[in-house]
Design a protein that fits this description.
With 351 residues, the protein is of the alpha/beta class. It has two domains: 5-135, translation initiation factor eif-2b, domain 1 (Four Helix Bundle (Hemerythrin (Met), subunit A), Up-down Bundle), CATH 1.20.120; 137-345, 3-Layer(aba) Sandwich (Rossmann fold). The chain has helices at 32-40, 47-64, 70-85, 93-106, 113-142, 169-178, 195-207, 219-224, 250-259, 291-294, 334-345; strands spanning 5-8, 11-15, 26-29, 149-154, 182-188, 211-214, 230-233, 237-239, 244-247, 264-267, 273-274, 295-296, 299-300, 313-316, 323-326, 329-332. The strands form four sheets. Strands 6-5-4-7-10-15-16 form a seven-stranded mixed sheet, sandwiched between helices. A four-stranded mixed sheet has the order 11-8-9-14, with helices on one face. Strand 1 and strand 2 (11-15) form a beta hairpin. The protein is globular. It starts with a strand and ends in a 6-residue tail after the last helix. The model has no long low-confidence stretch (mean pLDDT 96).
């Protein structure tokens, strides 16, 4: 598995996912503004990975603040945090990671500023390490939902490239494969950025897991033909009622799965749960530019002046979800059980 994002010589470097699968190239971030650009330009994507990158970006920003005054330092750090938070609005993991870093900085007001900077650096590394471990826990819980022989449909990329490592949806698939289950994977191509074709196929081929790609519009036919046993996706934000924001196209898969009595699972860490959002209707949905639809690479595939509507995410209602798989266990029938899970766990994680 590829290291998605990491520290190298006090710089943040990340795999430029725009270049995959044909070229593995590191994108070097020397400042927090470089991290913001990387997130906005899709150098790095996937909710957990964006959260990790944001934490590292805040640590980079802390190193850039030239003062020994705690008050001046914390004021500037707060401003940097707000700048990073604006880079992408839908994935809640970014806010979760930045809030964790700020709480730590605020708790150290009696320490020298130089020491606080080092502590924030180490905390961002800890967030990365924890993400890898909790993804493996998600995989351990989720593999029990996978039959001994199964064909799994997945959408977009929720693998090591979307996280600190191992993956959420692909973490479940990897764990099932490692347990000796005879699985095959079908990945939607996932327009317009083709994360399924470029990234998910790439990851699973590297792992030796049988995988095929389909165009997004073929999923319904394959479900009706009895060729899909279950669906597993990731998530970018989960509301308090269990509604899920994920890559555009997830909602329609959930409708077709429900129609054909196919289990529909979401795999995500608890940092993706946003108990402050009552329902999916209140989750902000990012829209991006027309060129992402009208072009592939640098080449237009449609009229240059065509209008395009490009929502990046959609909302899957909890009533369409069989279970949400987290590092703390499986939430079956989230429409009924999500709120009780949040109440049970609210003291074990902070936002």
């Amino acid at each position: 598995m590829i290291a998605t994002v990491e520290w190298k010589d006090k710089k943040v470097r990340m795999i430029d996912q725009r270049k995959l699968p044909h070229k593995i190239e590191w994108y070097i971030c020397r400042s927090y503004k470089d991290v913001i650009r990387a997130i906005k330009l899709m150098v790095i994507r996937g909710a957990p990975a964006i959260g990790i990158a944001g934490a590292m970006g805040l640590a980079l920003g802390a190193f850039s603040i030239k003062t020994s005054s705690y008050e001046i330092f914390i004021k500037r750090l707060s401003e940097i945090k707000k700048e990073i938070l604006l880079s992408r609005p839908t994935a809640v993991n970014l806010n979760w990671a930045l809030e964790r870093m700020m709480r730590l900085a605020l708790s150290l007001k009696d320490r020298p500023v130089s020491e606080i900077k080092d502590v924030l650096f180490m905390e961002s590394k800890k967030i990365l390490e924890e993400d890898i471990e909790l993804n493996k826990k998600i995989g351990e819980y989720g593999k029990d939902l996978v039959p001994d022989e199964a064909t799994i449909l997945t959408h977009c990329n929720a693998g090591s490239l979307a996280t600190g490592g191992y993956g959420t949806a692909l973490g479940v698939i990897r764990a099932a494969h490692e347990a000796g289950k005879k699985i095959k994977v079908i990945a939607d191509e996932t327009r317009p950025w083709l994360q399924g074709l470029r990234l998910t196929i790439f990851e699973l081929m590297q792992d030796g897991i049988p995988v095929s790609v389909i165009v997004d519009s073929a999923a319904g036919y394959l479900m009706r033909s009895g060729k899909i046993d279950l669906i597993i996706t990731g998530a970018d934000r989960i509301a308090a009622n269990g509604d899920v924001a994920n890559k555009i196209g997830t909602y329609q898969l959930s409708i077709m799965a429900k129609e054909h009595n196919i289990p529909f699972y979401v795999a995500a860490p608890t940092s993706t749960i946003d108990p402050q959002i009552d329902s999916g209707d209140k989750i902000p949905i990012e829209y991006r530019g027309a060129d992402e639809i009208l072009k592939i690479g640098n080449r237009y595939i449609g009229p240059k002046d065509a209008e395009a509507i490009n929502p990046v995410f959609d909302i899957t209602p909890s009533t369409n979800i069989s279970a949400i798989i987290t590092e703390k266990g499986i939430i079956e029938n989230p429409h009924e059980n999500m709120k009780s899970f949040i109440l049970k766990e609210e003291n074990s994680w902070t936002r």
